[in-house]
Design brief:
By secondary structure, the chain is an alpha+beta fold. It has two helices and three strands. Strand 1 and strand 2 form a beta hairpin. Helix 1 packs antiparallel against helix 2.
Length: 97
Amino acid sequence: MPFESPGAWRDVFRRQVTDGFMHSAHRFPDPDVRTPAEIRGAGELADSVADLIEAHLGPVRSAGDVNGPYLVDDIWCRNLLLVTDNWATILHLGFSD
């Protein structure tokens, strides 16, 4: 099922990096304790990666969650289908063992 907005994949990607499973390494014993600067930095990095993807593929016209492909060693993953005027690709977000 496609997302409502073609740019929604950027929001999903940013959320996974800033407050989802894909947290950056932590200096603290509690993984939920991060400074606002660390959260902002992770969000800026996610935005830069999204810009890089669209610079290579072109503007994403449609996006949505897809099942598979899964890697055997995946601990967690999420796959986003990104469709542009000329390309379609799966952005695999995940952690492997």
